[in-house]
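Note to self: the last two entries modelled the partners one at a time, which told us nothing about the interface. This time every component goes in together.
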Amino acid sequence: MGIGGTASTTAVLRVMNERAVFGEILKLGKVSRPELAQATGLSKPTISMALADLERARLVRPIGLRTGNAGRAALLYEIRPQAGWVLAVDVGREFVRLALADLVGDIAARRDEQRKGGETPDELVAWLGELTRELVDEAGVDVADITLTVYGTPGIQDKETSSLQLAPNLPGWERPGAVELLAAVAADAPYVVENDVDLAAVGEGAYGLGQGVDHFALVWIGTGIGMGVVIDGKLYRGAQGAAGEISYLPVGEGDPLVNRGRGMLESVASADGVVALATRLGMRGLTSAKDVFDAARAGDSIACEVVATEADHIAHALAGVIAVLDPQLVVLGGGIGVQAGDLLIGPVTDCLRDLVALRVPMIKASTLGTEAVLLGAMAVGLTTARDLVFERAVAQIPPG
Amino acid sequence: MGIGGTASTTAVLRVMNERAVFGEILKLGKVSRPELAQATGLSKPTISMALADLERARLVRPIGLRTGNAGRAALLYEIRPQAGWVLAVDVGREFVRLALADLVGDIAARRDEQRKGGETPDELVAWLGELTRELVDEAGVDVADITLTVYGTPGIQDKETSSLQLAPNLPGWERPGAVELLAAVAADAPYVVENDVDLAAVGEGAYGLGQGVDHFALVWIGTGIGMGVVIDGKLYRGAQGAAGEISYLPVGEGDPLVNRGRGMLESVASADGVVALATRLGMRGLTSAKDVFDAARAGDSIACEVVATEADHIAHALAGVIAVLDPQLVVLGGGIGVQAGDLLIGPVTDCLRDLVALRVPMIKASTLGTEAVLLGAMAVGLTTARDLVFERAVAQIPPG
DNA sequence: GAACTTAGTTAGACACCTTGCCAAATGTCT
DNA sequence: AGACATTTGGCAAGGTGTCTAACTAAGTTC
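The predicted structure of the combined assembly is written out below.
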């Protein structure tokens, strides 16, 4: 609990209770007054009052009668989906993905577009603005209706200079003020920029393997390497927003041919690192890391060796992560986590047994695939938007 | 904020407000009604009501009039110190330290005793029981008055088996049920067992360099190596309570003579590791790591080389920690942190500039010395005991 | 269609906090 | 020394919010 807290008057009780009712409706979907009374512990008259307020604030709406049971039919309420709109944007290396959802979370429109690559920030913003208008039209709403936009991007946002650091795939965004250009995408609508891997971790926690897990880490291995950390069910960003930036970690031995004596995790364990190692060991005609994994599944001995080496690298990196964080679960995501999860989970877990002091946490491969970042952006957006909408509607205007 | 929360009736308002008043008195010390009204935002009559309740619950007491200002003299209130007692116990490798404090945090009695070493759990518990009775007598209270005892021990508590793992200095405590023996120290009083380094981190946050810092890590380097992690101002324990167990981390190169190719952090960077390396490089007549550091301060070239190597090891370990956690501050504690902080901070920070992606966090040496664990135990104990006492007194018995 | 069951509303009571006013007590100015 | 300003503490009245209990409304079951 904690001694301290804030003192309050009866007026905040009403807000607290209405927030609780709103939260229960979000959780339960279509729901009747008696069910809400049961779920919140409040009395029937209080529930009726709260619903009247929420309905007046246009946050909820009656949806019809539920008949069939004995007794009088119950009037069901639900969240008014149009009470808010969330735009989630995944600005990836090759693709840009957008999804527009209502406050309930139903996706009204979405789009996956291939990037040309090398767009300037202005070009990218203009393009995103165009796509946003298309999505908004498709959903039959207006750009001004967007409650919140959440962008998932590589790199780390420097809030002081409004720029993105460590994001080589987004040239131009390292310039001061670049992030603020995003304000133009959806005029005046609030927006949030988060690291893509962090959002993938949130997505995993909301819709994937992290559901109900208090402390877990999502390790993203693809073109680059990163990690998202969830602690106490909440994304942990670190002091500078750089928590989980493990790509520069020194790995024990590394391939002596690539780096002298010590390898940087990203250079040895990323997709390119896998292809490089396989090529060096004699494999030919590789177009991507996936070829190596397919060959390993078919029994190719060189490919198997590459996989074993990759598992060893990952395990050594995870050993450090586990020693520091002691998570309950580690999810492998990104291209390699998804494509080669089946091959890697076993050897990684085995290797970790020798490297970890106590029990090895569960190691699993993500099931969200390429959707992880977008889902995470949506999860963050929905949570924040619901708060925003509630605050605006109920806390600000408390009519009798 | 977060949509959801708990619904409540007016009765919880009173408890909330009384908790807020109680918290303000703890924060402000001797304080008048108008000051409390100002601090909490509550009205005068409400403050008076709350104080009457708190006084009836024997949690606070009037302490006299404050005169001197213009106007009527104000009646000052303060926490009743005897409303609760906290026993903090640091079970170290060489010493056992105990402190008994009242609810305000004033230490009424304390004791530092040298361990014989190798005591069985039963012997240790009997001894601690004896010392506890002495402390309690000295303070003029009874064992039954102890609200909470907090033990700081090495190793990790396995809650399922009530035993301590990874604590070689406490033989016998790895047996199931061993931790429960501590119940006998202060009959029936609640007790908590925490990792000693974790408590040192809490101490650093409450009384040391971590004050006001949201995210920081305390790296403890002494006989053993460990780390305490504070996130959002709260101790982070991890899923199994093993967060920060970095002693087994592989360090990049290590001394090839000690370990083949790769060193375990604890074996190369601990006090023994320092002495071993110095001896191997030709220093003679060393009794402890302190000798090496003194020699380095005097300009001994071998000692300086040992210090440089130590700094390198620490920096490489910290690089991993920083990559994962991105703390605002890293505090070096334990024997080496305290004794050699002045020598190590500079080289460690320099070395980290090459290893860390973004800005290097502040690296500082702890100022709490050997008191860190005990202070941390006291901080945890006071926080928890205040909660316990309040809950028992106010929430349970709400008289008009 | 009568009995039963569940849903929703209304009225009265209780709890909590606040504002406003008044009395008490102290320092300061004349 | 006495009047005045200032601050503290207490009391009464009013407002807001929730609860219980009783009552009305609207379904199902037999």
